[in-house]
Write a structure and sequence with these properties.
- The mean pLDDT is about 85.
- The chain is built from ten helices and no strands.
- Helix 1 crosses helix 4 and helix 6 runs antiparallel to helix 10.
- It folds into two domains: about 55 residues, Homeodomain-like (Arc Repressor Mutant, subunit A, Orthogonal Bundle); about 140 residues.
- With about 200 residues, the chain is mainly α.
C-alpha cells in the first residue's frame, strides 16, 4: 500500500518523481507514460515509485494537484484587487509573468497556452487551469471595479484574456531574443487594451 513520505529523504524522492512526471507530461501524451519511463527519468527504482504511488494515474493526479495549488497560491499573492485597481494593464503583464514563472517549474503548464488537444488529460488540465485563472480575474476585477456593470466588465475581461492567450500562443520558438521581443509586444498589447478599458472608471 502506498505510504505518505515523512522523512526529508523520502520527500525528496517524491519531489523528484513529481518533477520527472511533469517533464514527461510536457513531452509525451499521458497514455504513453509508464512507470519504467518515470523511474528512469527520476533516477529512482520502480519499487520506490510504488512505495508512494498506487500507479501512474496516481502520479499524474499528484502532479495536477500540486500545480493547481501553486497556481492558486501565486494568483492570490501576486494578482490582487489593489494591483488591478492601480493598473489593469500591469495586472495582466504580471499575470503573464506568473504563468511564465510557473511554466519554468512545471513544464506541463504549456498546455494552458498552446491549447493542446493531444490527449484528454491535457485538455482537462488546461481547462481546469483556465477556469481557475478566469475565475480569479473575474473576482479580482469585481472587487477592483465594483461600479462597472457586471456584463460590461466581464466582456472586457474576456477580450483582454483572449488578447493575452492569443499573443502567447504565437510565441516564436526561435532565438531567445525573438521570444523576449514577442513577449514585450504581447504585454504592450494586452496592457494597452486593459488600461483603455478600465482606467477611465478609476476614481
Amino acid at each position: 500500500m502506498p505510504r505518505t513520505p515523512t522523512q526529508s529523504r523520502s520527500r525528496a524522492r517524491v519531489d523528484r518523481i513529481l518533477k520527472a512526471a511533469a517533464g514527461l507530461l510536457a513531452d509525451e501524451s499521458a497514455e504513453k507514460i509508464t512507470v519504467r519511463a518515470l523511474a528512469a527519468r527520476s533516477r529512482v527504482s520502480v519499487g520506490t515509485i510504488y512505495q508512494f504511488f498506487k500507479d501512474v494515474e496516481a502520479v499524474r493526479a499528484a502532479v495536477a494537484e500540486q500545480t493547481y495549488a501553486e497556481f492558486k497560491s501565486s494568483l492570490a499573492t501576486h494578482l490582487t484587487a489593489d494591483a488591478a485597481r492601480a493598473s489593469p494593464g500591469e495586472f495582466f503583464c504580471r499575470l503573464i509573468d506568473v504563468v511564465g514563472g510557473l511554466r519554468k517549474r512545471y513544464p506541463q503548464v504549456g498546455c494552458l497556452v498552446r491549447g493542446d488537444n493531444s490527449d484528454e488529460l491535457r485538455m482537462a488540465f488546461a481547462s481546469e487551469l483556465r477556469e481557475l485563472i478566469a475565475g480569479h480575474i473575474r473576482s479580482t476585477f469585481a472587487h477592483a471595479f465594483p461600479n462597472m456593470p457586471k456584463a460590461e466588465r466581464e466582456l472586457k475581461l474576456e477580450v483582454a484574456q483572449s488578447v493575452m492567450l492569443g499573443a502567447l500562443r504565437a510565441m516564436p520558438s526561435g532565438p531567445k531574443a525573438a521570444r523576449l521581443r514577442h513577449l514585450k509586444q504581447s504585454k504592450a498589447a494586452v496592457s494597452l487594451y486593459a488600461n483603455a478599458s478600465f482606467i477611465p472608471l478609476c476614481p
